[in-house]
């Protein structure tokens, strides 16, 4: 393939590897750059200046900056399922085969039809949406919303499932250094030399920060050489970790920082077993913010034309990438940085047409430089307008004597001063403070343990950066108990003084013509700010919402301060009193995948598997999520629907024997001299009389008197009980009991231990269950009806292994629950099934379990819903009058004792074929189905194989007195309704004869 | 009639990691693994929990019988193949060989001074070592494993995502023992393998 030349690449210089060409494509065009390039530098090297279209007006946009602040050069990176919109070309590290596509244009970047928006822009200024799409209301959903959605947004998300993986990780250190420029490196070296654990995070792919874009020298060598020496020293320190390509994005309580590491974004695709991104939670005892500063644009007419760039970025392209961003330049600045810019442009062979310094009078530094290079100097002048469509062709300036002059150029290097990068200082509500001398916001109150070094303090002088870095690094290490010497370096940067100026704020050029942009990415102009103030949105936070300024993916890094300055100008106040908008994490965008990490797809949350899960899988179980557990829902035979399977399972249990895995029930071991006293207080019913070898159904209330949970508790001795809870409530019950143990009755000597994981447990139910168990439980244990009646509990053995057996029933049949240490659970279930073959035993799942409990009117999740009292559930008599227990007092509240409260009832559809669904509301016959007439609702429903019809349980006002009444069960959500007869909730075997079989 | 039924078979002990523990694709880079994972099969786990009134007596009894001092918060102690882990105020977990009848032996030693509760089936034990094991665990555990703060015989109960686990520093080499709730072991193991894969992972 023929590679194009790179007409704007300088013959020498920069940190790119000219021996390592990299091929990439932009909008389908094959282009070549070098290793060490960003996409932006490679595009500029090839003379590509038009990179994207703006969000609202679809204006042609180029490259403004050379860093994370970039608002214009946003592209779609990669293609297909890896496509990532709004990737900043200025930080996108070039690799061989990179594919980038411009955004927000149709049909092509050069010819974009929606650029007509620019012509109608006076109709779509800030607030346009709020005003225009108000009426008619019928248009909101069908016309306006689809229309806005189509026009809104920048870039397209990937069309398919992301094939990459992501990770989250935690790191700990004594000192976290944020930023790898001269201050950050100095801090890390100073702290690292003491032996402290140091993490240095740098968002760039090469360490050095501002040194890379500058012709600086330190201790007689170049700044880049110094960086390499220091990087070598840091790499050799065992307790120092330098994390490149890592952006610290947030500060959180307790010295916790969020950081995203771009592990593979610079590769065609991640290496095997490597994630694309890794999100770090860094816990640091001390932190040093050395994040540098971001240059400010100036608002003048058409200041968004490709070719209008930040001056410092122009220097970065020259010095770091060996690229001249233009042939003929004009410099427009309000500070002494113009001198360094002029030096670098001249050194790169760029023809500088003029230096326009907005400050009145002459600046010595700038005029000396202009004279040195023989460049025309316009003091007290301003650029009012840029010309050129897809690329800058000339600028118009207004000189100090009010003359307008056109200067042809293809590059404008502008500088409105610098904003220290103080975002992270504000994440814990710290407010920055306005510094009049620096004409910038400086760090105000800091997060605990944080200090600020380098240009982020407002002083970008190289020696000051090195000194403040070394001092803060050593101090931070010292705070962590380490000691060492203060390192000292002497440096000189051509950018010395660049930041602390003397600067005179220039937010917008008076008399500018054409759109003067402040927020390039949100397409917010100076006129929008004017409009916002006129319409009453003059406060910083209001203007932000009204205009959307600072709300794009760049979060207003180049625009927020300018907007505040303009607001202050318009309202005649000073910027310090205007307040600021709030910086919040993340500092730079974080892909949502990085925040999910491993927790995705089947790993979204850990699933709890029963000990017998392997056997149940072999038996064809269909599993259902029950909390974190996977439970066997039913075991379909070939051709069976879930309902047919569940019906067969019910008939098999009621006709012979079935086995259900109930390992998921919560199990709490309760031991100690006060174990019984503790249980007495936790349960509302009596446990004083429960003898060893017996089990009892218990009901537990919350402190507020409502039912919390139910379950069976076995007594093995006066000091040893084992309680079971429902699957869903197991953690809540444990928490409830631990709370009362630790905080309410610490005097009780009782030990609570969750043994849910320790015991596999199976319900063996049906008339033949005893005969089946007789085959399995070791012979010496007598489980005959007389020896082991209903509600017995005992420790037994199975093939010599200790097990626990209780005769309890949820199905209403003769039934047992057998528990065995979990490691034997799978084996025991296989053995039960093998022995049960002669009895025609089957496995049954949660569907059959639910059908049988509804047939018996036993309450479960639908009824134990946190809104029901014991009396509501027909269990009021269980509440002991002879003792105190949790919930007793508040259960006496009048509303909880109201006889008209909804109570548990059975419901039978009059039409045998019709189904009543859970969730349907109950309304008295002949009344309208509305909220006013609502008398309760259906909590559970099932098709009863034994009754051959649908049955349901519900909660109905005054339900106890309404047996035989016909009410309407209305389900407006699913559009169904049926008439149901109120009956006893015990549908099947109401006298409980089968239980004792 | 009874003779027609099959004789009860001995019950087999089974680990949830018996199936599917081998990581797909990890063999390729396991020649010099940075992380080696071994499932510890033959060990019992027994919880000793006592009340405030009997903790001192318990400590004395155990020391007399086993020669082991009960460790304080965040620590464990060991002797003759028995390892005792602090698990909370007046709670210790005793790890020992599988066939030692530890539960009965401990019950005899502690008498009425503590509850003795078998947790052998509740916990899956993984033994981890290798030069990159700390890097792998940094993707799973939110705690600091640097030897300056987590050294030999230190232990922590902590959260691996939604899974509560306990970790012991067996050796500073480093070498760790992880105790994982049985029901979550397959998902935990998959996470561990995925986190270790980039360093090369060997499974024993």
From TrEMBL, chain A:
It comes from the Bacteria. One of its GO terms (biological process) is tetrahydrofolate metabolic process. GO terms for molecular function: sarcosine oxidase activity. Residues 514-597 form the SoxA A3 domain. Residues 615-883 form the GCVT N-terminal domain. Belongs to the GcvT family. PANTHER family: AMINOMETHYLTRANSFERASE (PTHR43757), AMINOMETHYLTRANSFERASE, MITOCHONDRIAL (PTHR43757:SF2). This is N-methylglutamate dehydrogenase subunit C. The lineage of its organism: Bacteria, Pseudomonadati, Pseudomonadota, Alphaproteobacteria, Hyphomicrobiales.
UniProtKB/TrEMBL annotation, chain B:
It holds the Pfam family SoxG. Coiled coil: none annotated. Residues 13-33 are annotated as: Disordered. This is N-methylglutamate dehydrogenase subunit D. It comes from Aquamicrobium defluvii. The lineage of its organism: Bacteria, Pseudomonadati, Pseudomonadota, Alphaproteobacteria, Hyphomicrobiales.
């Amino acid at each position: 393939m023929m590679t194009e030349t790179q007409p704007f690449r300088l013959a020498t210089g920069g940190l790119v590897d000219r021996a390592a060409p990299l091929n990439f494509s932009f909008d389908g065009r094959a282009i070549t750059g070098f290793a060490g390039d960003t996409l932006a530098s490679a595009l500029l090297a090839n003379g590509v200046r038009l990179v994207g279209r703006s969000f609202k007006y679809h204006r042609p946009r180029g490259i403004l900056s050379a860093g994370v602040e970039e608002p214009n050069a946003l592209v779609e990176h990669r293609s297909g399922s890896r496509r990532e919109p709004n990737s900043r070309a200025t930080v996108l590290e070039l690799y061989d085969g990179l594919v980038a596509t411009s955004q927000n244009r149709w049909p092509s970047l050069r010819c974009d039809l929606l650029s007509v928006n620019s012509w109608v822009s006076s109709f779509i200024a800030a607030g346009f949406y709020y005003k225009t799409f108000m009426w008619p209301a019928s248009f909101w959903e069908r016309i306006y919303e689809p229309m806005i959605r189509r026009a809104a947004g920048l870039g397209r998300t990937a069309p398919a499932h992301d094939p990459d993986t992501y990770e989250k990780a935690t790191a700990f250190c004594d000192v976290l250094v944020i930023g790898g420029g001269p201050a950050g490196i100095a801090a890390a070296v100073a702290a690292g030399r003491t032996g402290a654990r140091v993490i240095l995070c740098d968002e760039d792919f090469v360490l050095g920060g501002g040194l890379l874009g500058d012709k600086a020298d330190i201790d007689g060598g170049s700044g880049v050489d110094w960086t390499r020496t220091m990087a070598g020293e840091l790499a050799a320190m065992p307790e120092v970790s330098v994390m490149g390509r890592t952006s610290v994005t947030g500060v959180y309580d307790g010295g916790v920082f969020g950081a995203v590491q771009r592990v593979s974004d610079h590769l065609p695709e991640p290496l095997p077993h490597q994630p694309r991104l890794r999100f770090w939670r860094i816990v640091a005892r001390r932190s040093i913010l050395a994040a540098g500063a971001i240059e400010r644009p100036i608002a003048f007419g058409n200041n968004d034309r490709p070719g209008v760039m930040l001056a410092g970025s122009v220097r970065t392209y020259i010095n770091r990438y060996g690229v001249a961003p233009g042939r003929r330049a004009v410099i427009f600045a309000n500070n002494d940085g113009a001198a360094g810019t002029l030096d670098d442009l001249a050194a790169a062979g760029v023809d500088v047409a003029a230096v326009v310094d907005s400050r009145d009078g002459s600046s010595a530094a700038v005029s000396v430089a202009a004279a040195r290079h023989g460049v025309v100097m316009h003091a007290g002048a301003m650029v009012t307008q840029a010309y050129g469509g897809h690329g800058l062709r000339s600028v118009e300036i207004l000189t100090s004597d009010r003359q307008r002059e056109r200067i042809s150029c293809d590059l404008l290097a502008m500088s409105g001063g610098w904003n220290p990068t103080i975002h992270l200082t504000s994440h814990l509500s710290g407010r920055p403070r306005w510094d009049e001398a620096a004409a910038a916001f400086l760090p105000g109150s800091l997060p605990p343990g944080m200090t600020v070094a380098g240009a982020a303090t407002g002083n970008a002088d190289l020696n000051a950066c090195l000194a403040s870095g070394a001092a803060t690094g050593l101090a931070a290490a010292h705070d962590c108990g380490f000691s060492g010497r203060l390192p000292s370096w002497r440096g000189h940067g051509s950018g010395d003084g660049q930041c602390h100026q003397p600067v005179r704020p220039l937010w917008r050029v008076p008399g500018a013509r054409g759109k003067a942009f402040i927020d390039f990415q949100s397409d917010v102009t100076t006129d929008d700010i004017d409009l916002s103030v006129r319409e009453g949105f003059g406060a910083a936070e209001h203007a932000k919402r009204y205009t959307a300024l600072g709300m794009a993916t760049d979060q207003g890094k180049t625009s927020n301060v300018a907007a505040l300055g303009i607001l202050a100008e318009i309202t005649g106040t000073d910027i310090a009193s205007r307040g600021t908008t709030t910086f919040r994490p993340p500092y730079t965008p974080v892909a949502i995948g990085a925040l999910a990490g491993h927790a995705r797809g089947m790993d979204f949350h850990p699933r709890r598997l029963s000990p017998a899960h392997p056997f149940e899988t072999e038996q064809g179980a269909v599993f259902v999520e029950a909390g974190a557990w996977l439970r066997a829902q039913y075991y379909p035979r070939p051709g069976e629907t879930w309902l047919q399977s569940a019906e067969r399972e019910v008939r098999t249990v009621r006709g012979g024997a079935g086995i259900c895995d109930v390992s998921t029930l919560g199990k709490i071991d309760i031991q100690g001299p006060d174990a019984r006293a503790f249980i007495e207080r936790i349960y509302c019913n009596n446990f004083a009389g429960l003898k060893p070898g017996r089990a009892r159904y218990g009901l537990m209330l919350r402190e507020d008197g409502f039912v919390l949970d139910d379950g069976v508790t076995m007594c093995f001795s006066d000091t040893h009980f084992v309680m079971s809870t429902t699957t869903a409530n197991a953690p809540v019950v444990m928490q409830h009991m631990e709370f009362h143990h630790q905080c309410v009755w610490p005097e009780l000597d009782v030990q609570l231990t969750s043994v849910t994981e320790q015991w596999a447990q199976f319900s063996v139910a049906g008339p033949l269950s005893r005969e089946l168990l007789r085959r399995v439980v070791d012979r010496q244990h007598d489980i005959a009806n007389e020896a082991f009646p209903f509600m017995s509990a005992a420790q037994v053995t199975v093939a010599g292994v200790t097990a626990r057996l209780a005769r309890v029933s949820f199905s209403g049949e003769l039934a047992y629950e057998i528990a065995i240490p979990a490691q034997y659970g799978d084996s025991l279930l296989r053995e039960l099934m093998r022995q049960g073959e002669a009895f025609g035993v089957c496995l049954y799942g949660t569907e059959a379990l639910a059908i049988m409990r509804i047939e018996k009117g036993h309450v479960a999740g639908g009824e134990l819903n946190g809104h029901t009292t014991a009396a509501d559930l027909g269990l009021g008599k269980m509440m002991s009058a002879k003792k105190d227990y949790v919930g007793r007092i508040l259960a006496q509240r009048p509303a909880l004792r109201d006889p008209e409260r909804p109570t548990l009832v059975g419901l039978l559809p009059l039409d045998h074929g019709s189904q009543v669904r859970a969730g349907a509301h109950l309304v008295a016959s002949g009344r309208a189905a509305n909220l006013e007439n609502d008398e309760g609702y259906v909590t559970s429903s099932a098709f009863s194989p034994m009754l051959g019809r649908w049955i349901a349980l519900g909660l109905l006002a005054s339900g106890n007195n309404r047996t035989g009444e016909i009410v309407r069960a209305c389900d407006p959500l699913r559009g169904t309704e049926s008439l149901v007869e109120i009956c006893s909730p015990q549908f099947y075997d109401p006298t409980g004869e089968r239980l004792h079989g | 009639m009874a003779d027609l039924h099959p004789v009860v078979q001995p019950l087999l002990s089974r680990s949830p990691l018996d199936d599917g523990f081998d990581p797909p694709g990890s063999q390729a880079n396991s020649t010099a693994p940075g992380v080696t994972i071994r499932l510890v099969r033959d060990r019992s786990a027994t919880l000793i929990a006592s009340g405030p009134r009997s903790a001192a007596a318990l400590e004395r009894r155990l020391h007399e019988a086993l020669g082991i001092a009960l460790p304080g918060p965040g620590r464990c102690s060991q002797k003759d193949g028995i390892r005792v882990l602090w698990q909370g105020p007046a709670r210790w977990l005793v790890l020992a060989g599988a066939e030692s009848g530890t539960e009965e032996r401990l019950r005899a030693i502690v008498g009425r001074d503590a509850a003795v509760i078998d947790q052998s089936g509740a916990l899956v034990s993984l033994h981890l070592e290798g030069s990159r094991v700390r890097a792998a665990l940094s993707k799973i555990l939110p705690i600091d494993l640097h030897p300056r703060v987590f050294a030999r015989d230190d232990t922590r109960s902590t959260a691996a995502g939604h899974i509560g686990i306990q970790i012991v520093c067996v050796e500073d080499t480093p070498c760790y023992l992880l105790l994982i709730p049985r029901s979550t072991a397959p998902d935990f193991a998959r996470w561990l393998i995925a986190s270790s894969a980039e360093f090369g992972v060997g499974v024993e």
